[in-house]
Amino acid sequence: MLHVVLVQPEIPPNTGSIARLCAATNLRLHLVGPLGFSLEDRYLKRAGLDYWPFVDLRTYPDVDAFHAEHGSGRFVLFSARAAHSYLAARHTPGSYLLFGSETRGLPAPLLAAHRDATFTIPIFNPNVRSLNLSNAVSIVVYDALRQLGRLPIE
To answer: What predicted TM-score, i.e. pTM, was given to this entire model?
Structure first.
């Protein structure tokens, strides 16, 4: 199983959309705090529609708590400031796909610790700083599923 990890997400509708994606693709969603919203937020629930019962959700108060539980896992990080394209990432079953907050991205210590496993989705317009978080997660998730042979090719 692949894992989607959102580190300090801030915008409820993005997280709700990602939760729906995880439900649709049978991936586990990890939310690492502090969160910029409550899990009871109506916009979060609205974006996830009635799929919340199908979301395999884990929550952690902070990066240290997440790392204590999953630190031995294979981390693949995604950042607007990375040098290598997401197409160069090699996914394996059980990989943790880490994404940062909408305004700050991933914490600097996390990026520094995993510099060789950090990738970006190319943006061709220099006036655009980053993609929407839920769009970025969708792009990466479907590429990972393709690499792992989990997408029907018909």
So the answer is: 0.95
